[in-house]
Amino acid sequence: MVQNLSAVGEQSEDIAGLAAFEAILAEDSRIEPRDWMPEAYRKTLVRQISQHAHSEIIGMQPEANWISRAPSLKRKAILMAKVQDEAGHGLYLYSAAETLGTPRTKLTEDLIAGKARYSSIFNYPTRSWADVGAIGWLVDGAAICNQVPLCRASYGPYGRAMVRICKEESFHQRQGFEILLELSQGTPAQKQMAQDAVNRWYAPALMMFGPPDDDSPNSKQSMAWNIKRFSNDELRQRFVGMMVEQVKVLGLTLPDDQIRFDEETGKWQHGSLDWNEFKEVLAGRGACNSQRLERRREAHQDGAWVREAAAAYALREQRVEVA
Ligand code: BYC
């Protein structure tokens, strides 16, 4: 009998909670951690935010490979700062995911066990210094295009984390653009190095926006919940339009001769992408998937003493407070 009463109580709370949740979405306001939310909304957020956090953390690796080989002290300092920013982004996002009840330790365990997703783009190798420029310009550029609308995501902690991340990403994109510009205005060999890097990173950067809309199972619901504001294809074509102008200033070209603006739809058209390659990368068979995960595992093991020391310090502080 008691059980039945509590079930009835929970059910009416859910009905009231759902009405409040829907009212918040209808007025385009924000859901906060203590607000009632449907389990599916919570799950979707943990999925997207944790994948995003993992991308920032794994995404440190392709560029970090070049810190020791950056061509000058100034370039080294800039690159180190950029890679550290990415670590910071990962931390804001893990914190946002924790407000939904999933601890960072669990998310990290899933990542190093190979059970979690992170962005496909970070499974490609960085072959030359120009790749660092191409990552900044194209990868951070795609990230900004995807993430500016996420500043308005309905979940408060996620949207607020994105505001700061986007500001930092703007600096990252400019430093990438500047590396490519300098190479492009250098010797013919340097210009070719910049062009090769753009040729290699262009299509993978377009795939960062996710599968085509017809093949995107999560988009519709995420847009109904005001998490995503635009579809994958919508953002992808918008990004192509931005890059078409910027590449002219660089004096380089995009490796796609089918780009054109369609006056009728008001959208950019581009050549087709190799979605089989995308699926292979997602299935763990990209050029660097195993290397990235192995490196992340090693870093986690190597950092065990830092976690132990931090926990011991926190315990000591707690005891001092109690005494
Ligand atoms: N790579 O239904 P869909 C950075 C998965 S880091 C891998 O369209 P959704 C940076 C998707 O998860 C920036 N997986 O999904 C860092 C789903 O699988 P599950 C990273 C992908 O969520 C360091 C399935 O495919 N940015 O900038 O509606 C250095 C079906 O897709 C990808 C973010 O994380 C992909 N590219 O839309 C430099 C942005 N695309 O989960 C730079 C936040 C799709 O059902 N995330 N999948 O098993 C988002 O905006 C959305 O999650 C996505 C996908 C647009 C990526």
From TrEMBL:
Q: The organism sits in which domain of life? A: Bacteria
GO BP of this protein: phenylacetate catabolic process
Q: Which Pfam families match?
A: PaaA_PaaC
GO molecular function: any one? phenylacetyl-CoA 1,2-epoxidase activity
Q: Note the Gene3D superfamilies from the entry.
A: 1.20.1260.10
Annotated GO CC locations: cytosol
Name of the featured protein: Phenylacetate-CoA oxygenase
Q: From which organism does this entry originate?
A: Psychromicrobium lacuslunae
Q: What is the lineage of its organism?
A: Bacteria, Bacillati, Actinomycetota, Actinomycetes, Micrococcales
